[in-house]
Amino acid sequence: MNKIKLLVIDDEYHIRLFFFEEFEKEGFDVVTSDGNQDILKLVDREKPHAVILDINLEEKHNGLDLLRKIRSKDQKIPVILCSALQNMRDDLQTIDADWFVSKSIDITELKMSVRNLLDMA
Prior knowledge:
35% helix, globular, five-stranded parallel beta sheet, alpha/beta
């Protein structure tokens, strides 16, 4: 049986590594990105079951732009915004996301959100 694949997009290496390790321990296949490559090509190639996406990315993209790109390609893939920007929780720009989780060292809520969105609860 194939593992459920998650795509984690965050510009901070230590966050990507932390999420990678935590979700791998839970039995997921995890692919990470800093958001700088072509996300649509990455989604096409990896075919993730869900995406965990930071809003505040560095370099040439921001998470909300990437969310719109992902939605333009695939309306069904669950996207969880995971951000330290608490004020964005109720912002209309985040409406295309399936879930919003505040970034924290305790990722219990994030894990529960992934499981709920993938009907694994």
